[in-house]
Structures are given as C-alpha cells and as structure tokens.
Amino acid sequence: DAGVIQSPRHEVTEMGQEVTLRCKPISGHNSLFWYRQTMMRGLELLIYFNNNVPIDDSGMPEDRFSAKMPNASFSTLKIQPSEPRDSAVYFCASSWSRRTNYGYTFGSGTRLTVV
Amino acid sequence: AQTVTQSQPEMSVQEAETVTLSCTYDTSESDYYLFWYKQPPSRQMILVIRQEAYKQQNATENRFSVNFQKAAKSFSLKISDSQLGDAAMYFCAYRSGSNYQLIWGAGTKLIIKP
User: Fold this and answer.
1) Closest CA–CA distance from residue B92 to any residue of chain A (Å)
2) Is B33 on the interface with A (CB under 8 A)?
3) Which whole number is the average pLDDT over A52-57?
4) Which of A6, A25, A44, B111 supports an S-S bond with A94, CB 3.0-4.6 Å?
5) How far is CA B13 from the centre of its chain?
6) Hey, CA dihedral for B51, B56, B60, B66, is it positive or negative?
7) What is the mean pLDDT of chain B?
8) What is the C-alpha to C-alpha distance for residues B24 and B92, in angstroms, rounded to an integer?
C-alpha cells in the first residue's frame, strides 16, 4: 500500500490566490481527516469525513476554507482567497472507523506558504 | 473534556542510551486508546506504538515500549538503545472508544547526541 498520498508537497502562493490541496487516502479506509499544524496552535482538526460525508467541520477556520470528498479515494481542501495567516503544514489522514485502536495514517503533508 | 499533557518540551539523550518521554492524560472514560506518534524533520507523522486501555500488558515495538499506568493516567514512552534516526518530535495522543477525535499533546522534541 502506498499510504496516504498528498499533493503538492510544497505550495507557495500570493495572498488572495486560490489554493487547492489534494489527498488520496489508503484504499479501504472510510474515515478521512484534514489537519493543520502550526507552531503556535499545534495540530488542529479542520474537518472529518466518514464514508465520503462531512461529519464534523467545526474546525474549519472560516468560509474561505472548504473541503470535498467526491469519492472514497480523493479529497480536496481549498482556500479561497488565501491569506498569510493560512501558512502552515496541512495533513490528511485516514483510518478504518471500525478499528479505533489503530489510530490514523498520515500523509506527508503540504507545506503552504502564503506571501 | 479529555486533555493530554506532555510536560517535557525538549529532551536529549546520548546515542545508545535509554530515554523516557512523559505523557499524562485526563479522562473519565474507561474505553480509550493511547498513541505515540513520531514526527521527524521530514514532517511525516508516524505511528510508533499504541495501547488499548483495557489491556494491562504494556505495548512493545522493538526498541520502543510504554509504561501504561491507568490509575495514574500516565502513558510514558521508553526508547532503548537510542539511534540518531530517533531524533524527532514525539506526540502523545488519546482517542475515546466512542469518538473519532484524536486529542494531542503539545509534543516533546527529542535530541540524540552522537
């Protein structure tokens, strides 16, 4: 298994531009999570999907952030318009909801820099 | 609400020696799971070891083992024969058996001295 695949690995964009981050979860996993990691706030859960349905988006900072999961093998996190304070590492993670003891498998993350 | 506390922002150890990272948590639940994740400079979050609360036996994965003290709500990670590749941030995490959320500690930066 290739693990959770995220792209791009790095993204540098100008303030006001649209940014799209992509994630391919592990085949067979039915739970998908988007996290944001910063030095100040640590790891923050942005949104949780189960069986492609958004279950909890209470962590999404504001309307500029949106996430979709059109099928079991693909998810996107979009920021429009981007702002310098959105600079962070964004992680996607997946798991099998019936195996709660297995934790999550994380992707390598996307380092986003908004200038 | 559940909380996870890692009281050591940074630890250092000589290569080949043993180091213990501390983690305490607070919960009123009886069904839960605990995890240690490693985040090296490559930033990949890697699951190191996990422990089910209902198991009395401490989990072990090669050089990594935990000391799970349920009554004290303590979950420390012991790394034996430390290697340079062990240098990383280590995060302790809690997950309720009835909830999808992982509750994270602030992390401990582990430095390995050659």
Assistant:
1) 12
2) yes
3) 94
4) A25
5) 16
6) positive
7) 95
8) 9
Counting every residue written for chain B, the total comes to: 114
φ/ψ (deg, to 5) at A102: -90, 0
A92 min Cα distance to partner chain B (Å): 10
Residue pair A77/A65 in contact by the 8 Å Cβ criterion: yes
Helix (H) or strand (E) holding A9: none
What are the chain B neighbours of A43 within 8 Å (beta carbons)?
A: 91, 104
Report chain A residues whose CB lies below 8 A from the CB of B95.
Answer: 100, 103
Q: Would you call A103 and B52 a contact, using CB atoms and an 8 Å cutoff?
A: no
Q: Residue type at A42?
A: G
Question: What's the whole-number mean pLDDT along residues B70-75?
Answer: 96
Residue B53 carries which DSSP code?
T
Distance CA A80, CA A103 (A): 31
* pLDDT value for A102: 74
Quick check: helix, strand or coil at residue B4?
A: strand
